[in-house]
Write a structure and sequence with these properties.
2 copies of one chain form a homodimer.
Chain A lengths: L8 E4 L1 H7 L7 H13 L4 E6 L12 H7 L7 E5 L3 H9 L4 E4 L5 H8 L3 H17 L3 E6 L13 H13 L4 E6 L6 H11 L8 E5 L6 H10 L4 E4 L19 H11 L7 H11 L10 H12 L1
Parallel strand pairs in A: 1-2, 1-8, 2-3, 3-4, 4-5, 5-6, 6-7
Chain lengths: 304, 304
């Protein structure tokens, strides 16, 4: 197993990608406590919220209030998604450490999701990146539909590689190749990473999986084998619901940490502390969290 | 990916290991239809039931009736679990093709679960194997707690290897190394297989995972990398429940087939036909089936 990276960085996206996809609006004070607990659990990068239109994403309407309420822990970067310069201005006012842009690899998905062609989305990302970096902020990029598109089906790995290289060129320190619809499998992960790492070093890549088909962990494994050492995850598997067909969350942080602990890969995370954050947020969601490791820990505690 | 086996055999254990762990008693006619649908989906080995005491396992009380009712499809082996010679006699009367014995790797688990020391359990298995093979039946063995014990914790891989070799010596054509409590991770899978394959060829091994901590698929991946080409799975992830803490089913057949299809490994299975079997049994369980791929297929069908 020495072929794996010795250490992995986990980017916690639960407060943003997770809560954004919950139907319930979680009270602002609970979101603040959640972010603080995640930092205490050992996270070094936490995506706290998104500065998007509250009309389209009401769950993120309190982004500024959440940033104002959290305790900033030294060594932790508190980040936010921004779709445009207006969002960036709000993010700067909220004193975020890092912003994330989110173009798509699929042309059809880009047009339908953000009403931009891929080229237009890159131009937008460049404007955001230029202004953010001039203000001293780091810029991350998600590349949506890197492993498949709900409208087009397969997306050419060479196209993913080209767009990733352009995102690095325009100033992103890291590109998170994102399996937006949770369709990836390990061979596809290997194929995409083979093409992308011909253009961009694996140290500038992250992998962002959704567990729609239960393959998130095995895809992480394929990513580790290809030398990737940064993975996105969501406490408890937030954003998913174990019995609602179609509600599919991110890879759960607990499941990822259980795997990495088993493999002997250092994460700096404390599993019990992540579960404590999940346990506190769960009652505000209206359904159980789907993380298998979290559920197993809850069952053990109940028998305790 | 050429390091993987070109072809994988899936042993469907849903009608036995799955239904045995459901709280509901599924009507006999539904069990019969379930087994017939699983055979139509492409399975070549189906564990249909268990000839155990109905006092201990009421869900399997109709084992003989299920065997009497199924349509025997050419090329399919219909198997049953048997704990003792009395069970074997009932299995023979029901015209099973193959029986399975189930000693444990952990001494404490063996004593608590089947009230036998490991050595006594092996002696029992030998008596069953001798009589079964004399009657023309194939014998399979599960080795429970091969990756950890709920009472002892870690189980030495060398002990697992030794017991596996003894089970092959006493006539089992295959030993299914079983992660009874769903605690395995890929490094442990590699470690155990390293020891076991020093004594027994990988072609005589199967892997039997429970998805308690979401690691079943990634453990399969580690097994494939070590050359194992037989895996147990349960349609829909039967035996598990997505929101009941502690109710944790087998690896779901749909999830396994989705992975193997993606890897280009031949299974001979039709995913839609497995899901059809799951869809028909689900209303008799009182809860949704946990398979992520099945749930994603149901969501797609609902959006239609």
């Amino acid at each position: 197993m020495s072929r794996f990276p010795a250490k992995v960085r986990i980017v916690e996206v639960g407060p943003r990608d997770g809560l954004q996809h919950e139907s319930a609006f979680v009270p602002t004070a609970e979101k603040i406590a959640f972010v603080n607990r995640l930092a205490e659990a050992g996270h070094t990068t936490i995506e706290v919220s998104a500065f998007v239109s509250p009309k389209w994403v009401p769950q993120m309407a309190d982004a500024a209030e959440v940033f104002a309420g959290i305790t900033r822990r030294p060594g932790v970067r508190y980040t936010a998604l921004v779709p445009n310069l207006q969002g960036l201005a709000r993010a700067r006012a909220a004193r975020v450490d890092e912003v994330a842009v989110f173009p798509a690899a699929s042309e059809t998905f880009s047009k339908r999701n953000i009403h931009r062609t891929a080229v237009e989305a890159l131009a937008d990302a460049k404007r955001i990146s230029d202004e953010a970096r001039a203000a001293g902020l780091r810029v991350r990029a998600y590349l949506s539909t890197s492993f498949g598109c709900p409208f087009e089906g397969a997306v050419a790995p060479a196209r993913v590689a080209d767009l990733t290289a352009r995102l690095i060129d325009l100033g992103a320190y890291e590109v998170a190749l994102s399996d937006t619809i949770g369709i990836a499998h390990p061979r596809l992960v290997s194929d995409v990473l083979y093409e992308v790492t011909r253009r961009v070093p694996s140290t500038s890549l992250a992998l962002h999986f959704h567990d729609t088909r239960g393959t998130a962990l095995v895809n992480v494994y394929a990513g580790l084998e290809a030398g990737v050492s940064t993975f996105d995850a969501s406490a408890g598997g937030l954003g998913g619901c174990p019995y609602a067909p179609g509600a599919t969350g991110n890879l759960a942080t607990e499941d990822l940490v259980y795997l990495l602990d088993g493999l002997g890969v250092v994460t700096g995370m404390r599993l019990e502390a992540i579960a404590a954050a999940s346990r506190a947020i769960e009652p505000h969601l209206g359904h159980p969290l789907p993380s298998r490791v979290f559920r197993a820990m809850q069952a053990t505690a109940a028998r305790g």
